[in-house]
Input
Amino acid sequence: ISVKEKDESPPSPQIYECTVSLSNGKTRTIEIVRQRDKKESANRAVLIFPGRSATGVSDDPQAREYAGNNDKNIKFDVYTVTLGGYPKTTGVDKGVETTETTCIQDANAVVNFLKNSGYKEIALHGNGIGCVPVLAAAQLHADVVKAVVLDRGFTSAKEVVVNAVRNFFSRFGLARWVPEPILRGFGGSAFPVSLKVDGVGGEIITNQMDNSERIRRVKTPIAFVEANDDQWMSRTNRSGAKISFSQDLQRLHIRQYPDFKDKDFLLTLPGNHGAPLPQNSLVDWVDRMMRMRADVELPEGEAGDTSSSSSSSSSLPSSPHSLSSSSILE
Output
């Protein structure tokens, strides 16, 4: 990883370009935006992966809150990310394809950048599709990741497709006519499965963005955010009740790690998928979890019951990790 700091006038944000060298000889550029000035370092970092259509330079009130704009007197060094090639229409990687593989590689690279900068306590916050790289980074870097926030995340990409269609037709009493198997097949076909991700060490593979599988590998307290009228990140059960994917993910995580029952946190927002986060709704929880787990040391790459294996060859720093193929939400 080579890092070039852009020539920006103080005060912050400071913008870095992190060039990821790939095993095929090509490179990809990640834009990392630091929201606070170096001289005011809090020695603890929050890394935010934005949702669809957002970038590291997008205005984010939650980033400002983590950086100190709160009434709790809590401050973190905050970094936001523009993943390589996303969005494709603008930025330093215009035209570069963004895939599940590149998301995992970029998440690994950004956390390595923070570790090389001296951070030993990191919280990860993912918005929507940003939950995919967050869970991958939490798996690969359990030695420094102390808390995770999944902000309106999903169980799997294909379930988002199925349930968005089902939720729409349920308004007209037509949900039972939705061809769910066909939609799942269509949604799943867009994402390759079981492809080994080069450059991150061990044997982490693609699983069609199946967060319900990945979350079982994250041995870290998680805050889940849901919206009570979210047509995208929810499903309709057989009785017609709407259940958020956040509730499904929380249930899976606590089932895997019962000790986190009193630490995992579900925040319910009124409104749709774009409902704003209330001020001070997360910063206190993140602070408490990071303080509580400051002395908890997990090996780099430890994630639940996974086992280590030899790392793949790449110019990226490696960390031992193994991940099984995807499983279906029970």
Notes: DSSP finds eight helices and 13 strands in the chain.
